[in-house]
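ok trying again, last paste got cut off:
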Amino acid sequence: MRSREQWDLSSEEKQYDASDEQQVKSKKTRAKIDRDNQLSSMRDIVESDGGQEFLWRLLARCKVYETSFTGNSQTFFNEGKREVGLWVLSEIVAADPAAYAKMMMKNTEEFLKNG
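nice, full thing came through this time. structure:
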């Protein structure tokens, strides 16, 4: 179990002053670096054949390409899965706008070839 001190905010977070332009600029810079690293990681994934295959299966599993409505409470569960899939899709497009199109083309060709 965590102690009270572990739950307390770090001294940096306690002292953050949103009216201090330098602190705001520093926080924005850190956020941009973090986001750039996230997108770089996604690019690494979509550039590999295995990564593309996994992401395509994940999107299918999340039922991104299907309706989530069932007429009962299963709709809520389906919509939750679909939300995750839509987020993954938005991350793919943000990292490499052409990646999703490439994945669609590859999977359409394989579907037509193998049925």
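cool. The two ends are 54 Å apart (CA to CA). Residues 20-114 form one domain.
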